[in-house]
Amino acid sequence: MSDNQVVESIQDKYDSLLPYLNEKTRRIWAAIEARSLGRGGVSQVAIATGLSRTTIHAGMRSLSEQDGVKIEEDSTRIRTNGGGRKLLEEQDAMLLSDLESLIEPMTLGDPESPLKWTSKSVVKLAGTLNRGGHRISAKSVYNLLESLGYSLQSNRKTRDGSSHPDRDDQFLHIANQVKHFQSHNEPVISVDTKKKELIGNFKNPGNEGCLSEQPVEVRMHDFVDPQLGKAIPYGIYDLTLNKGWVNVGIDHDTAEFAVESIRHWWYSMGKELYPSSEHIMITADCGGSNSYRSRLWKLKLQEFASEIGKNIHVCHFPPGTSKWNKIEHRLFCHITTNWRGRPLTSLQVVINLIRNTTTTHGLEVEARLDENLYQTGIKVTDQELDTITIERNSFHGEWNYIIKPKISP
After folding, report:
1. How far is it, in rounded angstroms, from Cα 176 to Cα 49?
2. How far apart are the first and last CA of the chain?
3. Could you give the CA distance from residue 152 to residue 296 in angstroms, rounded to a whole number?
4. Which residues, listed in sequence order, are joined to residue 314 by a DSSP beta bridge?
5. Those residues with Cβ within 8 angstroms of residue 280's Cβ, 6 or more apart along the chain or in another chain
6. Residue 80: how many CB atoms within 10 A of its CB?
7. What is the pLDDT of residue 227?
């Protein structure tokens, strides 16, 4: 039989067997065929099957090792222990950290869900990583993002409200400021008010384990109980140390309440964690009690800055992008998960559930009850506004500014 006929015969057999072969049986079968042909058999089998000579030789080594030896290993295993390529993150120690640094400024998501989204495409991320000295494909970037808990969404689906033309530049500005203050061991906090919660035997979304067909019975209608009222949790999240502080108010969510919450965080937690700090950086959204338009917010921050003698740096996220604020993903969503399906029957229950909120990444949360009453509708006059020692950044000074302590005469 000529060499061409031998190759064609092997090819016919291989095509018939291929649907029934896996990686291991394929190389073993090829090795048996090559060994039966004798000299030149490896080359002929390689031509007929398209398998590399290395693969065929690996099969022949396996046959040699097994000759006369009882096979005790798991016959269902295709590769030996340790076989296959190493994971990209094992080969390149900086890959994951560099990937996270690229997507960190662009991360958003539903405040009630720990799932994170990213608005950068995997193709662009792969290109940036490759230009930085890594070797990775877009598909591998997708797999890594999935393992980190990210979900890719189209731009149309991740738009939240109107899009400001300088939105992305503001994200990058905030990210650079955060890195700068963290590198100097200065406190960086993310602040916001969580959704108000009714106190009483009201339905709380989510499921909780209980005896079959014996659910907790709650009220039919969600009207505020005049005796129990409602809880207004204002949160402060330390981006560096992964620690949270929640001030639970009972009255109104005002700018005075927001700054009072930050004050409580500083004296109860921040002062001890950052004893030698000279600055405090705050990231906040653009609306609510910490709105960039609020005069009272700035006036109360001025009083606080003068009281503690520190510069307070404030960066607001652009309008319609509050979901990017870190406190939403790293604190509030975990609190919501912790008390899912449980009626918040009292303020003490709220405090206890917040304090017992933890994550696998070591989140620690403290909470206190704020029984103070906060007046609404306070007007700040132009004269009072002029007394604020504010320094506005050249890039969107309405979003980025420093409030400095007043020097006593």
Report:
1. 55
2. 108
3. 39
4. 282, 401
5. 186, 187, 189, 266, 270, 310, 311, 312, 313
6. 10
7. 84
When pLDDT is averaged across residues 122-142 and rounded to a whole number, the result is: 87
**Tokens 């095509």, located at residue:** 15
pLDDT 10s digits, 68-122: 554 444 555 556 665 666 778 778 888 888 887 777 665 655 554 445 656 667 8
Q: What is the per-residue pLDDT across 183-210, written as a single tens digit (0 to 9) for each?
A: 999 999 999 999 999 898 766 666 555 4
Distance CA 340, CA 206 (A): 5
Task: Tally Cβ neighbours within 10 Å of residue 176.
Answer: 11
Q: In angstroms, rounded to a whole number, what is the distance separating the alpha carbons of residues 286 and 207?
A: 33
**245 closest CA partner among 256, 255, 230, 260:** 260
- At a CB cut-off of 8 Å and minimum separation 6, what does 66 contact? none
Pairing of strands 116-118, 311-316: unpaired
| 107-108: strand order across its sheet | 107-108, 116-118, 150-152
